[in-house]
Amino acid sequence: MEEERVDYVLVPLGLLIVGVYHAWLLVTIVRNPRRTVIGLNAESRHQWVHSLMTDPLKNGVLAVQTIRNNIMASTLLATTAITLSSLISVFVTVSTSSTGAASELVYGNQTAIITSIKYFAILVCFLVAFLCNVQSIRYYAHVSFLATLPTSKGKKDSIEYTARNLNRGSFFWSLGLRAFYLSFPLFLWIFGPIPMFVCCVMMSFILYFLDTTTSFTREMHCHSLKEETKPHDLESSVS
Q1: Which residue has the higher pLDDT, 4 or 7?
Q2: Rounded Cα–Cα distance for residues 162 and 63 (Å)
Q3: What is the pLDDT of residues 219-229, one digit of tens each?
Q4: Which residues contact 60 (CB under 8 A, 6 or more apart)?
Q5: Which of 12, 134, 139, 201 is most deeply packed, by most CB within 10 A?
Q6: SS3 category, 54
Q7: Contact 231, 50 (CB under 8 A)
Q8: In the predicted model, what is the mean pLDDT of residues 49-73?
Q9: Residue 189: is it exposed, middle or buried by C-beta count within 10 angstroms (0-12/13-18/19+)?
Q10: Which residues, 6+ apart, have CB-to-CB distance to 216 below 8 Å?
């Protein structure tokens, strides 16, 4: 196979592997959420909101501090993403004259169009990560107000709305993190399609173990949810 055509085979194949894995992950989250870490965390956040909003005045400080930590994490990732986007833009405009020295380290297509696509793909990943983290901050800030409303005490609709917005903010944070993950194989694509393809395979393999849960974890999670709901059931039966 010619060196210029390696990119047309390995790069789409690597992106297909990552895409198929995330499509499977999305279907699993919808159909069997407790099999994934994202699904378990969503249930835990839902239960956390219900437990705190039983008394917003008493638990308001704890709720605001916890949400503030999430806002700080999203702000850090958003700042990192926009900074890297700016650096890439500056690097592309400055390094147009130094392609000859770098071409000796690259095995694959080295045309100007492919090189521009490489940098543009990395730039898009960081911009998507920035936008997702900004949306995450938006939802977290909104939840910080909803979780401390005294009028929401005992109102199931208000509590469900707050929990739903908290999970949306966390989902946007996860999407921004996935955009950072995707930037790794795209960055290695600068050095050729073979490192990019290897990175896609290894990343999908590692993410599978990070995104899925074991039976032991699911049992512990279900047991903790049952233990937390027992006091509420007793209180409701007494009242």
Answers
A1: 7
A2: 12
A3: 777 766 655 54
A4: 147, 148
A5: 139
A6: coil
A7: no
A8: 85
A9: buried
A10: none
Question: Residue 180 in contact with residue 125, Cβ under 8 Å?
Answer: yes
Q: Look-up: residue for tokens 């390696």?
A: 6
Structure tokens at 72: 């700080």
Q: Give the separation between CA 191 and CA 211, rounded to whole angstroms.
A: 29
Over residues 134-151, the mean pLDDT reads: 88
Instruction: Tell me the mean pLDDT in the region 3-17.
Output: 86
How far apart CA 55 and CA 50 sit, in angstroms, is: 10
Residues in CB range of 139: below 8 A, 6 or more apart: 165, 166, 168, 169, 172
User: Taking all residues of the chain, what is their mean pLDDT, rounded to a whole number?
Assistant: 83
Q: What is the pTM of this model?
A: 0.83
First to last CA, the chain: 76
SS3 at position 212: strand
83-86 long-range Cβ contacts below 8 angstroms, 24+ apart? 84/126, 85/123, 85/126, 85/127, 85/130
pLDDT reported for residue 233: 44
Please tell me the distance from the alpha carbon of residue 106 to that of residue 187, in angstroms, as a whole number: 13
Q: Which of 110, 92, 94 is nearest to 102 (CA)?
A: 110
232, amino acid identity:
H
